[in-house]
Amino acid sequence: MLAYLQNLAVLICVNAILAMTLNFLMGYAGIFSLAHAVFFGVGAYAAALVSMHVSSSIFVCTIASMALCGALSLALALPALRVRGEYFVAASLGLQMLAVTVFSEWRSVTGGLGGITNIPSPVVFGVPVETSNGFFLLALGYLIAVALVLWLLVRSSFGRNLQAIRDSESAAQALGKNVKAIKTLSVVAAAALAGTAGVVYTFYLSFINVEGFTLDLSVLLMAMVIIGGTGSLFGPLIGAALLVLLPAALSFVPGLPQAEVGLVQQAVYGLVMVLLMIYRPGGIVGAGKRRRNAVAQAQQAAQTSAQLGEGGAR
C-alpha cells in the first residue's frame, strides 16, 4: 500500500510541475497553449537519450532537457506570438499533432510506438536513485524547485510586466514594453521548466513512449489549471492532485468495471468543469484570491476617499 501511495505522490508531483508551468502561461501571461505535453515529451526523450549515451547524471540530463525544450518553444513562440491569442492556440495545436507524429515515426531516436526501454537510474551527486523513497524525494525536490522559480518570476519586474501585458497588451505597449520579447521569454521559461517534469517521469518509469505525450494530456493539464484556479501558484497543484487521485478513487468503486473507469472519469471531468464554470469560474483557489483582491481594492479605495475628504475639509 505504501508503494502505491508513493506512486501516486510521484505522479502528482510530475503533473503539478506541468500544471504550474502551464498556469504561468495561462494565468500570468494570458497565453493559452495546447502543446504543453510536447515539451513534457521532449524533456522526457532528451533525458532518456542523454542518460543512455552521454551521462546518467540527473543534472546533465536536466540541463539538456531544459535547453532542448526552450529551443523548441522558440519555434512555436516566435511566429505565433506575432499575432493575437487565438492564433497561438491554433499553432500550439498544430505543434502537438506534429510532435505526436514525430514521436511515433522517428523510430531510430524515439523507438516509435514501442518507446525507449531500459533507461538507467539517475545519479545524484554520485549516488544512483533506485528506491521508491528516492524517487519520491527527487520528484518532490523538482516540484519545490520549479515552484520557487515560478514564484520568483511572478514577483519580479518581468512577472509584473507579463501581467500588465495580460491585462492590456495595448496599454503595456504604449508604456514602452517590448510585448513580443516578454511573451516569447515567458513561453521559453514555461517550456524549459516543463521539461524537468519529463526528466522525473523518464527516470521513474525507466520507459517512455508516445502514449504519455498526446493531446489528451495537454487538455487534462488545462483542466488541472482551470479547476485549481488560474493566476494562482498553488491552484494548479490542487487541480493536479484532484485529477490524479480521481482515477485512483474510481478504481475502488464497487461494481464499476475497470473497462468503464476511463469513460466515467471523462464524464466526471466534464461535470466538474461545468459546475466550476457556473459556480466558481476562478477555480478552487482563484475564486478566493479574487475575493481577497476585491477586498484589498475596496479598502484602498476607501482609504483614498478618506484622504481626499480630509484634504477637502482642510
Automatic annotation (TrEMBL):
<dbReference type="InterPro" id="IPR043428">
    <property type="entry name" value="LivM-like"/>
</dbReference>
<dbReference type="GO" id="GO:0015658">
    <property type="term" value="F:branched-chain amino acid transmembrane transporter activity"/>
</dbReference>
<feature type="transmembrane region" description="Helical">
    <location>
        <begin position="237"/>
        <end position="257"/>
    </location>
</feature>
<dbReference type="InterPro" id="IPR001851">
    <property type="entry name" value="ABC_transp_permease"/>
</dbReference>
<keyword id="KW-0472">Membrane</keyword>
<keyword id="KW-0812">Transmembrane</keyword>
<dbReference type="Pfam" id="PF02653">
    <property type="entry name" value="BPD_transp_2"/>
</dbReference>
<keyword id="KW-1133">Transmembrane helix</keyword>
<feature type="transmembrane region" description="Helical">
    <location>
        <begin position="135"/>
        <end position="154"/>
    </location>
</feature>
<feature type="transmembrane region" description="Helical">
    <location>
        <begin position="185"/>
        <end position="207"/>
    </location>
</feature>
<keyword id="KW-1003">Cell membrane</keyword>
<feature type="transmembrane region" description="Helical">
    <location>
        <begin position="213"/>
        <end position="230"/>
    </location>
</feature>
<feature type="transmembrane region" description="Helical">
    <location>
        <begin position="32"/>
        <end position="51"/>
    </location>
</feature>
<feature type="transmembrane region" description="Helical">
    <location>
        <begin position="57"/>
        <end position="80"/>
    </location>
</feature>
<dbReference type="GO" id="GO:0005886">
    <property type="term" value="C:plasma membrane"/>
</dbReference>
<feature type="transmembrane region" description="Helical">
    <location>
        <begin position="263"/>
        <end position="282"/>
    </location>
</feature>
<protein>
    <submittedName>
        <fullName>Branched-chain amino acid transport system permease protein</fullName>
    </submittedName>
</protein>
<feature type="transmembrane region" description="Helical">
    <location>
        <begin position="6"/>
        <end position="25"/>
    </location>
</feature>
